[in-house]
Amino acid sequence: MKPLLNFFLIDDSAFDLFIYEKLLIKSGITENVKTFNSAREALKHILSQGTSLPEIIILLDLQMPDMNGFEFIEEFDNLPDFLRSKIQIFMLSSTIDTRDIEKAKASPHIIDLLPKPLEVNFLKKKLAL
Amino acid sequence: MSEKTISILYIDDEEHNLHSFKASFRKQYDITITSSVVEAEQILNSKDFCIILADQRMPIMTGVQFFEKIRLKHPKPIRILITGHTDIGAAIDAINKGEVFRFIDKPWDYTYVETAIANAYEIYRTREDLKLRNIELQKANEELDKFVYSASHDLRAPLMSVLGIVNLALLEEDVKSQNEYLELIRQSVKKLDTFIINIIDYYKNARGVPVVTDISFEELVTEVQATIQYLPEYGNLKMTTDIDQAGIFQSDVMKLRIIFNNLINNAIKFQDKSKPDPFVHLTVKSTPTQAQIIVADNGSGIKESDQDKIFKMFYRAGATNSGSGIGLYIVHEAIAKLGGEISVSSKIGQGSIFEINIPSIAK
């Protein structure tokens, strides 16, 4: 049996949160998806969990008001090791801007930039499932 | 710009030259004189000049040496050298080291000096204009860059949402749930359409020829109300109006429609559904010279730190159902084009008040 994964979805679009939560659960990759409509809220949640935070995979939108995806990564960089080691981040965005793509590739905290709409099979491959 | 008085600094160790120059030209130009190069440098640090005139033969340093010294720190003023001795060596130095624009022979002739100053000022003004244009162009380019970046996102994001929903719907065996997906697709397409309409409004506002007509605020508001009251997000919001128009007010009806539409739509979108009596109250007070428009609501309000940013292009305050951040930018641009002003006062959780003052445009 493969282990079930915990997902955090961070996206300001209520549509996209709804779509990808359903899609992830339908695909059988997970049974546990938490959604956040702001990056700041997600960050607060992670900090409040502390040591009880399970291992999670974050699908992070890029263009969001208040705190965007890259700003979230900057904050993530300041998190203590024990939290960071439990978190794997994929950026999930509709961007086709080369500067964004380069920046995402260059970040040590972003495993990959996944284009919207999400292809679960592509994500599975990235997770070596 | 030509109405501006030309400011001139004149340096000459011979006091009587300074005074006769000032006596001849003081009515035309804004003249500062000094007999010392040291003092001249201090003056340059505290005042901007269009033109500097300097005598070549002075103690401490020559006019050319003075120009060479100040040229890098004060590059803007045009330099003119006054010299009694036409010495080719000094002339070469003047041009190569001091980058002097022109020579004036001593004793100088009134018309000759006047022409030299007029020509020098022409160059000064052209350079300044060019600098200003460059700054404007740079700003326009930056805005365009930001516009393309944000617009491509706002055009693409709803489309990718639709694709995502379609992918999801295809996985669904239960045919009944398809309607739910279709509803989501409808909403996403509407969002895209709203954005495209906004872009067209923006373009019309920025580039379109303004059409000034007599405005009936009563009609305008009724028209805007008619388009919004059946919106699903309208809810049980109560919209009240108080329109007091005395006499003829003239303006561009297109821009006014954009303004009313955006402000009222925002009040609907950001209403506080937890309140028992969500409202938006529109007040218009217009005279033949001026109109004051106030849109007040008891919606979710705007954070104080966001209040000076909401009129910026693509700025989205962190609200959950915020749009693309272009609406209020267009409102601001439209009001600016009409020669008016907009201000906002708001308290989070209590509501927002937008106040607009615009002048009537004479045909």
UniProtKB/TrEMBL annotation, chain A:
Domain Response regulatory: from-to ranges: 6-129
Domain of life, per lineage: Bacteria
Keywords: Phosphoprotein
Pfam families per UniProt: Response_reg (PF00072)
Protein's UniProt keywords contain Acetylation: no
Entry-annotated residues carrying 4-aspartylphosphate: D61
SUPFAM superfamilies from the UniProt entry: CheY-like
Entries under InterPro entries matching the protein: CheY-like_superfamily (IPR011006), Sig_transdc_resp-reg_receiver (IPR001789), TCS_response_regulator (IPR052893)
Name of the protein in question: CheY-like chemotaxis protein
Organism, scientific name: Dyadobacter arcticus
UniProtKB/TrEMBL annotation, chain B:
EC number, as in UniProt: 2.7.13.3
Molecular-function GO term, any one: kinase activity
Residue(s) carrying 4-aspartylphosphate: D55
Catalytic activity line of the entry: ATP + protein L-histidine = ADP + protein N-phospho-L-histidine
One Pfam family matching this protein: HisKA
Keywords per UniProt: Kinase, Phosphoprotein, Transferase, Two-component regulatory system
All residue ranges annotated as the Response regulatory domain in the record: 7-121
Keyword Transferase part of the UniProt annotation: yes
Entry superkingdom: Bacteria
SUPFAM superfamilies: ATPase domain of HSP90 chaperone/DNA topoisomerase II/histidine kinase, CheY-like, Homodimeric domain of signal transducing histidine kinase
Start and end residues of each Histidine kinase domain: 150-362
Stretch forming the signal peptide: none
EC main group: transferase
InterPro entries cross-referenced by the UniProt entry: CheY-like_superfamily, HATPase_C_sf, HATPase_dom, His_kinase_dom, HisK_dim/P_dom, HisK_dim/P_sf, Sensor_HK_Regulatory, Sig_transdc_His_kin-like_C
Protein name (record): histidine kinase
